[in-house]
Amino acid sequence: MRVDSKQHVCIGSKSWTTPRMMSCALKCGAGSRTWTRRNPAVGERLGVLGGTFDPIHCGHVLLALSVRELLDLDRILFIPAADPPHKRSDEITDAIHRWRMVELALEGLDVLQPSRLEIDRGGTSYTVETLRHLRSDHDGAELHLIIGADNVCDLSTWHDPEGILQIARVVAGARRQSGVRDDDRFADRIIHLDTPLFEVSSTTVRQRLRNHQPIRYLVPPSVESYILDNGLYGTGDS
Questions:
Q1: 83 in Cβ contact with 125 (< 8 Å)
Q2: pLDDT exceeds cutoff 90 at 37
Q3: Does a structural domain hold residue 16?
């Protein structure tokens, strides 16, 4: 493992695409232990992973476990969006289903916890508002906002990105091929982790389901069962 002056961590990451490797990753956290020193004056080290989770997949879980190990976080909250600002509401699955799939995916992983914060708040789910709420509820906590590396270049288009960076440390991991533009005004304020890469997206999962293709090992088994039982993503079509 190495850490350079630009806050980049390399742990010799692999592409976790085989069932055996994925199973191992989920059991052990898929990363080396701790590269940061704990500040005794800081309270809980809390990770925040938001998203539409339509559906949640193994890549989300692997990213969270890897970041937790590398940054020595106490736990990570998975926060499904009620109404994502970057997507049309008629294009996403009902929050009831997305929430339940997140619950199922995280069962048995005590350090990864689902949160209904944005769903219960309702309205457009702005990250900065969620972080402000968490800062208020978790006094003294050190917040770490986890995003995919492909979201880094879009951060300037988010609602109040400066506010986000003032409240939380932004951590980018996986999807290393996306890179970060050298002229990005936020690039030097983001922690970049070279986490194990699991090449899957929610879009791919939905497309495979609509094409009647298998999604085994792309989502946790409990999530796959829920999708089929509820006829989501075209699986209930005759």
A1: yes
A2: no
A3: no
Task: Say how many domains are in the chain.
Answer: 1
Q: Which residues constitute the domain of residue 220?
A: 44-234
Q: Are strands 8-10 and 2-3 parallel, antiparallel or unpaired?
A: antiparallel
**How many degrees, rounded to 5, is the angle at CA 80 between CA 75 and CA 85?**
130
Structure tokens at 7: 């806050």
Mean pLDDT of 88-100: 92
User: Is this structure's pTM higher than 0.85?
Assistant: no
| Residue 15: inside a domain | no
Residue 228 lies in a domain: yes
CATH code (residue 112):
3.40.50.620
Does an H or E element contain 146, and which? strand 142-148
Alpha helices for the chain (secondary structure H): 19-28, 58-71, 95-105, 117-121, 127-137, 161-167, 202-210, 221-229
Cβ count near 44 (within 10 Å): 13
In a domain, 85, yes or no: yes
Sequence-distant (6+) residues with CB within 8 A of 43 are 138, 139, 140, 141, 142
